[in-house]
């Protein structure tokens, strides 16, 4: 290869590299505009999650709001919905139900307008609204939202998924609050079946199913069955936490209450004392 040819080849290579860099820049810009990636919005969201983890909820709310604005401007509606969902959860846990509903209704409106109606972010919005209406004792409305969430999760995740089990558990709790005990039991049994298959009988998550069934059977006055589920919940909690942990208090109290309802004062007093010893 001659000297002149080498120079021409070198110039051509540099030109190709520059073209390649420009193409990458264009794709990066397009991804940003389409909401596929934005460092500022993502940093706000991450910072909000960190504040939330450290119980600094006021700061978390500010940064979730900042993130939501950025995501909406970028057209990333799924992340916008996610940001507003997080705000709704924080406000709900602070008993600010009406304020939470404002954010969740906006999330739902934008989500249904711009996303697939079966998007999992929309399922999360439905769940959050279901939680609020349950807290407000509007159980029928709560169930509407929880069943919508369940339908989406089953469609997107399949029947055997932990999130599907969680939805069944939510439904079971609301049916119990609504005095629909048989429906509550059916929902909790579905959650239990899924959790047993996926997680095993000694998992932390399965405790929620045992607790839900214990409460439902107690309402039905089937105290022996109720006691059995509470004992299983306690056994698992002991495996997870060990003797002397404060998380055991609730389960000792449950068992104590059922023994009293069964007319067994001795056992009731025994478990009541155990609950007091954990404090």
Automatic annotation (TrEMBL):
Keyword Repeat in record: yes
Transmembrane segments: none
InterPro entries per record: TPR-like_helical_dom_sf, TPR_rpt
Keywords: Repeat, TPR repeat
Highest taxon of the lineage: Bacteria
Protein's UniProt keywords contain Cell membrane: no
Family annotation (Pfam families): TPR_12, TPR_8
Entry-linked Gene3D superfamilies: Tetratricopeptide repeat domain
Protein name as catalogued: Tetratricopeptide repeat-containing protein
């Amino acid at each position: 290869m001659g000297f002149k040819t080498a120079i021409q080849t070198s110039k051509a290579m540099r030109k190709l590299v520059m073209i390649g860099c420009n193409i990458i820049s264009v794709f990066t810009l397009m991804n940003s505009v389409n909401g596929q990636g934005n460092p500022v919005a993502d940093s706000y969201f991450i910072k909000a999650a960190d504040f939330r983890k450290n119980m600094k909820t006021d700061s978390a709310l500010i940064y979730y709001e900042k993130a939501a604005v950025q995501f909406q401007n970028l057209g990333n509606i799924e992340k916008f919905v996610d940001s507003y969902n997080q705000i709704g959860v924080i406000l709900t846990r602070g008993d600010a139900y009406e304020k939470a509903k404002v954010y969740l209704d906006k999330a739902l409106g934008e989500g249904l307008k711009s996303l697939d109606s079966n998007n999992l972010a929309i399922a999360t919005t439905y769940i959050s609204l279901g939680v609020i209406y349950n807290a407000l004792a509007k159980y029928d409305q709560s169930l509407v939202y929880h069943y919508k969430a369940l339908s989406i999760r089953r469609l997107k995740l399949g029947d055997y998924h932990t999130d599907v089990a969680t939805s069944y558990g939510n439904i079971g709790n609301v049916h119990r609050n609504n005095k629909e005990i048989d429906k509550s039991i059916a929902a909790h049994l579905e959650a239990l079946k899924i959790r047993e298959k996926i997680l095993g009988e000694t998992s932390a998550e399965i405790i929620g199913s045992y607790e839900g069934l214990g409460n439902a059977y107690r309402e039905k006055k089937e105290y022996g069955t109720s006691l059995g589920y509470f004992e299983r919940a306690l056994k698992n909690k002991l495996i997870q936490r060990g003797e002397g942990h404060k998380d055991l208090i609730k389960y000792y109290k449950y068992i104590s209450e059922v023994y009293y309802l069964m007319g067994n004062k001795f056992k009731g007093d025994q478990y009541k004392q155990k609950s007091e010893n954990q404090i």
